[in-house]
Structure formats: C-alpha cells, structure tokens
Amino acid sequence: MKLKNLTKSLFAVAMGSLVLTGCGDCCKKKCTEEKVEITDAQVERYGITNKEYLSAATKRALKWPEYGNEWFIRFTQEELKGDLAYEEGVVRRDPSALIQVNGKYYVWYSKSVGPTDGFDADIETSKVFPWDRCDIWYATSEDGITWKEEGMAVGRGEKGAYDDRSVFTVEIMQWDSMYYLCYQTVKSPYVERVKNQVGLAWASSPDGPWTKSEEPILSPADNGIWIEGKISRFAVEKKGDFDSHKVHDPCIIPFKGKFYLYYKGERMGEEMYFGGREIRHGVAIADNPKGPYVKSPYNPISNSGHEICVWKYNDGIAALITTDGPERNTIQWSPDGINFEIMSHIPSAPHAIGLNRTLEGNDDPTGQLRWGLTHEYVTDEYQCLRRFTSKRKERHGNFADFGH
After folding, report:
1. What is the pLDDT of residue 22?
2. Among 69, 108, 71, which residue's Cα sits nearest to residue 92?
C-alpha cells in the first residue's frame, strides 16, 4: 500500500506543471469531492481507460441516458413543381405543416413581393425584411411535389390594427371539424424595437373564409426596459424575460385535453452565446383553441432553437431544435410537453420545417419528418419553398448511406 502511494506521489511530481495546468487547486478539490461510482459495464460502454481517473467529458457521458439510434436522421431536399417553384421577385417562405383534406394536401405560407430595403429606408414605404409586408397564402397538391397556388387565406389588417404591417410564419391546426391558423403579426411602423405578437384565424373549411381574432392571442413579456434616446434593440437597461421582445413561430398542438401553443421567444438586448443567438422556446396553454392562452410558469422550455417544429409521439411531445444555441440540431422529447430531454444529435436540418401531420400516429419517433416542406434562401431577398425528405441512419456507411 505504501509503495502504491509513493508511486502516485512520484508520478504527480514528475508531471509537474502539466498537472497544475490541467487541473488547478480548485479543480483538484472538486475532483476529490466528486466521487463517481462507475460500473464495469460503463467502463466497457464508454471505453474508459481507468475508472479512478475520470475527465469532465467522461463524467458528462456517464449521465447520458442509454438511447438507441431510432431518433437519428439525415435530411435531403428537392425542388417543387407548379406554382411553388422559385419565382423571381417573390418571397414564399415559412411553410405550415401539411394536412390532407378530400385527397389533397394543403399548405399555408408567408408571401411578399419585392426586394428588402432594411431599416434605413423610408419607414412608411420600405420593406425591412423578406417577411415584412406579408400576407398568408395557401396551395394544394395531390402528390406533395406539384402544387397549385389557391390564393390569399389571411391578409393584413386595416390601418391601426395589431396586424396592419405583416402577417406571416403560419401554422395550421385541425380540430373538431374546424381549422385554425396561428401566425406572427407586426403593427406599423416596423422599427427595430417593434414587438411582434401572435394572431389567430379560424374557418370551417381549409379553403376559408377565415375569421380573424380581434386581438392577439399571445404577446411578449412586458418586463424589459429600453434605454431611452436609442433606437437599437440591443440597447437595454433591463433585458426582461426570454420573450420580452418578440413571440415568433407559433404552433398549437392539442395535448392532454388542452391546447399547447409553442413559440419562439426573442429577448430585448438579445446576445450571442455558445455559437448562436440567444433564442429559447416557450409554451402557453389554453382550454379552448381560441384561448385565452396562459404562459407556462416553467418557461423557457428550451435552451436553444429557432423555428418551432413539434409533434406528438408516445403520449408526449417531440421537438426538433435547430439553428441557435448550445443544443441546436437536436431532437428532444417530453412526456408532459414542458420538460424536454435530448434524444439525438443530428448533422443539420432544413429551415422552417413544415412537417407532415398526415403521418401522425406513426410508431417511428421521427415518422412525421419523413417528408414535408421547407424554405430555401435563393438570395438574401428571395426565398422559395422546397420539399424535404428524411431517413433514419442506424449503421456505419457513407454520408448518403441511409439505413433502417
């Protein structure tokens, strides 16, 4: 026993500065205090060299749940045909989920025309983003590839209304013989500090006519403080809640006898961290599709993300988290629709996925992602809709070697 201790002491002296560099006094104390119990099975699973010496990475790995690869997928994309093929000078973006009615697929999306001017142009006539001055249009298809544009579904409101500037980023919910569209709204003027809200429209047919809510069904938190005399959205005295600036990308899911409105929150004074924007998701819950929607006290419910993409699976809610934050490009799942855990990391995902609700109920956890619609930036000013497909990958092989 004494020889063993002496050997350890000599080893520590020989390592000298390397040991001190890799693990300072504070870290050494922490390592000593954190005694981790590890089984032989874990040693085998994670290829651990010596269970008496565990790095921070190994300690994190030991906390991983033992999931398989059934949540791991890769995506491919292809062009659409018909009216939804790319059209110069026209923006079509942010497709809703797909539903099927009387043998036809339906999709709703944001549509605008003309180039983007930015905030420096005339505030009354400019188009500051591609999603500015949008209306919500819809299209139908028999095969999901060739589409016919049917016309406008929901337009901007009258001057002075909460949605008079733009209505965009729409999602569809079919429930009890009714159809509901939730979407983002902007009231003029569109300035850096404008606060987006969420509107709702409903109809007894997917072809309309649509009745719009007189007031927004969701608004940003009202607890941030701008620095007076500034115009930048980053100039704040107090940032407020995760959704103090904007509520984006709404999606309503019927769940456990209630209606869960998932949304993306943007914060006043939003920062960049962990390789992406400071974006988190939240949820508001109602007893009725039309509301009132009450934000969950557990918000935010994600550490990362961008566009909302959620679906039912195994009596819970699954979510594709993309683009921003430390948990981007993950698929997560929650048994209660609020507390999500990471189920897989994927290489990448298409923008603004409109998944296929007709595939709901599939035993495959990612079944609703087998195909749907997305959008592509053809240029910074113009986007078009495309079709995506996905396949599970559960074995080694070339990048394109998908397999079940």
Report:
1. 41
2. 108
